[in-house]
Write a structure and sequence with these properties.
With 292 residues, the chain is an alpha+beta fold. It is built from eight helices and four strands.
């Protein structure tokens, strides 16, 4: 976050998030349950103090979370998907860059409107609060890494601790499974701490703090650093193919890369397009301005 650079230490909320809950025609649960759930989810994310920093509104991480309930297991137990899109402001401009654009396909939880949704550090309360707190700290980690080299360490550590506290009886849930082939929350945070992925985190810092954040005053210099960050990511992709951390990058940055490098000289466009295609081939159509 911006105030990582200032050292302020007054407790405050770090997010401005809108949470919505979509649900099928209720068959087991009272529709009022979903209204209560949506209200509590918004309060949970926006009223919690996740760090000790004090942020002005324009400095906060903005986001949207949409929970799509696809199955009622009972009147109080549900499963479905969660879409999360979060952004942070870019220095010297009114532009906001996407930090995280992710669909979690393995959401399952129980919810009783009579019981408040709470998160208690160092303990597991329930799966829904664990999932939300995990993503809060993971996104804070991405934000921290975008302002200082490995500046998200403390937040990523908290996200990992949340994943580790999930009871073994719930780890078979696809979202927390520790099986090596699972592309889920556990793998997402596990990669962050592997030495082989440190270069990806360094690329994330270069891309944001030394690239995007200088674009207002030096667009060419900013693009040069952003291009170098793509080469750093390519090193990671070559060593650890099909990683989640590279996937997280391109899900967040595809549209932005297409716009930023659209004004580049043709040779640079070709270089950027070939780099991206080698790492994000399935989404090559998103980079149409680079392939012209």
């Amino acid at each position: 976050m911006l105030l990582i650079l200032t050292g302020w230490s007054v407790s405050a909320q770090e997010f401005q998030v809108n949470v919505s809950v979509n649900h099928p025609t209720a068959q087991l649960a009272d529709p009022a349950v979903f209204q209560s759930l949506e209200l509590q989810l918004n309060e949970f994310f926006n009223n919690q103090s996740w760090t000790n920093m004090n942020l002005k509104d324009f400095e906060k991480i903005k986001g949207n979370i949409n929970i799509n309930i696809t199955k009622e297991e009972s009147a109080t137990s549900f499963s479905g998907e969660m879409d999360l899109v979060f952004s942070r402001p870019v220095y010297g401009s009114d532009y906001e860059t996407t930090l995280f654009n992710h669909r979690d396909k393995n959401i399952s939880f129980s919810y009783d409107p009579a019981r408040p949704l709470t998160y208690t550090e160092n303990s597991f309360t329930d799966n829904l609060s664990a999932i939300l707190a995990f993503y809060a700290y993971y996104i804070l980690g991405l934000d921290g890494d975008s302002f200082a080299l490995y500046g998200g360490d403390n937040y990523f550590t908290k996200a990992r601790e949340i994943a580790q506290r999930v009871p073994s009886s719930m780890q078979e849930d696809g979202g927390w499974s520790q099986k090596s082939n699972s592309r889920n929350r556990f793998r997402m945070i596990d990669e962050i701490f592997k030495p082989s992925f440190r270069t990806a985190r360094r690329a994330w810092y270069h891309y944001h703090r030394l690239g995007l954040d200088v674009m207002a005053s030096g667009p060419q210099e900013g693009r040069e650093v952003m291009l170098q960050s793509l080469h750093e990511l390519k090193e990671v992709e070559d060593a650890e193919s099909n990683s989640m951390i590279v996937n997280v990058f391109f899900l967040a940055k595809a549209l932005e890369l297409n716009e930023v490098f659209a004004v580049s000289p043709r040779a640079e466009k070709i270089e950027v397009f070939n780099l991206i295609r080698s790492m994000d081939a399935a989404n090559s159509q998103k980079y149409d301005k680079l392939s012209r």
